[in-house]
Design goal:
By secondary structure, the chain is α+β, with helices and mostly antiparallel strands. It has three domains: about 20-130 and about 200-250 and about 255-285, Aldehyde oxidase/xanthine dehydrogenase, a/b hammerhead (Aldehyde Oxidoreductase, domain 3), CATH 3.90.1170.50; about 295-465 and about 625-775, Aldehyde Oxidoreductase, domain 4; about 475-620, Aldehyde Oxidoreductase, domain 4 (2-Layer Sandwich), CATH 3.30.365. The protein has a seven-stranded mixed β-sheet, sandwiched between helices. Strands 9-17-16-15-10 form a five-stranded mixed β-sheet. Strands 20-28-29-30 form a four-stranded mixed β-sheet, with helices on both faces. A hairpin with a 2-residue loop joins β7 and β8 (about 155-160). α14 (about 540-565) packs across α15. The longest helix is centred in the last third of the chain and has 28 residues, at about 540-565.
Length: about 775
Amino acid sequence: MYSFIGKRTIRRDALAKTSGTLRFVNDLEAPGMLIGRILRSPYAFADIKRIDVSEAERIGAVTLTPDEVPQKPFNPRLVSVHEVTFKDTYVLTKKPRYIGDAVAAVAAPSEELAQRALESIRVEYERIYEPILDPFKAMEPGAPLIHEKIMKGSEWIRVEGNIAASLNYVEGDVDKAFQESDVVLERRFKTGKRYHMQLEPKAVLCVPEPGGKLTIYSTTQSIHNTRILVSQIFDIPLSRVNVVKIPIGGSFGSSIQVNYLVPIAVALCLKSGKPVKIAYTREEDILDHSNFVFHFRIKVGAKRNGVLTGAEFENTLDVGAHQVQPYPLLGTSLGWFVSMYKWRNIRYIGRAVYTNKTPACALRGYGAPEVQWAVETIMDELAEELGVDPVELRLKNYVGRGEIFWGQGPTVKSIIRSDGVPELLEKGKELIGWDKRGDPRGKKGRFRRGIGVARGFHTSGAGGPISGEVIDYTGCILKLNEDGTLDYITALQDHGGGTLDAHVKIISEVLGVPPELVNLASASTENTPYDVCTHASRGTYVGGEAARRAAEIVKSKIFEYAARLVGKAVNPEAFKIRYDEGLKQAVVYIEGTDVRIPLSEIARAAWQRNWGTIGAFVSYRATSAPPSFTVYFVEVEVDTWTGRVKPIRVVAGADVGTPVNPDMVEGQLHGGFAMAWGMAFTEDMVYEENGELAGRGLITDYKIPTIADVPAPEDFKVIIASSYEPTGPFGAKGIGEAAMNPAVGAIANAVYNAIGVRFYELPITPGKIVEALRKGGVQWD
């Protein structure tokens, strides 16, 4: 059907990455560059009386204290509109609120000297407080306020009970629905606190230019938001700040916000007048960001025939010490819940609470993996209570085609126009052998196997027919070169999943130009239109549509110039375009005639005859955020003696509309399952009573899945639904976050099917499994 879309091709950055020649921020240097280091608080909650930097200055370092930087609060995430953006963060603080909070910084010509200078700084603490590590204790009357006041938009507001933000919602009559239900279940859930463990720890290089200009190279998902925030903090005109897009070594949401080291590097650069580079160690990086800890209380009701009647959802977020994005997360969590199933009556109580822990931010799914784990667990329980097949209960109640989809919260609503859920569930049942999974009560022996199912989704962007509280638009520039090749420029970041390869294929499909002739040009804030951020799995759906529109404009201009070349009364609409294998380029032609003009000839004529450059500038906002549905069937084996769980088989299904890069879709599903396995069984940031992380080591302390924790390739089957999204470029939707979201639910349900025990707190460690089996009186025969 297509010439380039859907074809399996070698990634454009494959050689550079595999050969080690691709340059990330930490690989960059500048003449006269200083190395920056950040002094972090050893206390989780304290007041600073005095900072002595005299010795650091004596040995030749440039120093920075809170008194030397703007004391204006900011939020490092600029994805929400100004009015609902909460601000409580400072470049450097006099009141550290978690172990790792930045209190001073230095820069020196060498890393050794910078470290010596850092260690020479003396900080006198006026008062050290008992840290608050539990959100429910933080809300107790009389609990010390971690923040007494913060800024919302342009207004200062007081913080009550350490509640950073709240959101409540009611639809229908929930109490009546429960009274009329035949079955009512209520459960509490708690997730772990996870670190993103992206391949690249964060780094920044800030270079001063003549005339007071700054050029910034940063680990970021948004070069434009980085530019805007630097301008706001330091009162520098945007025209004097240029942020250059550099390849990013993964993110998983860890760089949606402008990273804390960026304004510190800028301040050191401004003070010293020299380039300054700061790069985190892995141990520092884990103190910079983590995910939110979710505490859920979910109550659901249903009729005996399987029809859902109502649901109550209480969501308490552990924000950590600073706000990055808890208010919008309260809304998206509600959106994930509402758009899973037709609850009919809903009551939502959402609150985000400060604690003295590492600040939280999005981690692949922005709350959806957590919500969908809890929902899919309780749906499995409900099916068992009703005596119906769990797959059939889901099919009967899920929110699908033609129904209202909440996208990322109550302000982002649209209609679902593509839906591959029935196809994925039916094919998955067949491939996994669903009907042979057995009852956990009849399974015996040390090693017991179980099969679980879960379904879910993620949005493709955060757009809607009416602009809500989320900023969501992108842009690009596309121009035809005089030899028939193209330059494509976009600020949209590729996290490593092949997003920009998808853009190139979309452009190629419109113009008939093979992907190898489309150049991904260097991008910066100076030469690109605004892109909010590569998040919400919007890269292909939103960014790809901008690329398609730009290609259509370029094609229209090509036809206009071709008509001039033909020199007759030719209607440009008569032209068509296709790839010519012999010429290795696209040609413009008119069916039934001998008119056949290579693209290079048209471009050269435009150059030589002064017709002007053939190009397009597009700024685009999507008016929908269609769900990319995913389904997982997982078979596990539980060792009842040790509590260890082993994955046996996986069937992963994805409804991505038209798969632009099918191999990338498969790769995302494999990666999504691996991350889900870590979330389910091993990943957690454990805090000591004083607020110190129990362990920060990459290998010894924080356990992420390895190749040994995933099934062999032949035991991992991928299904791609045959769907088409009419609002997406060539029918495409997103996949990145959807690839992980329901997998934890399927894994947990598989564990239940193996041993007959459900778990409501993550991670499900071997110790928890063994303890639960002992309490249940399991027979280890």
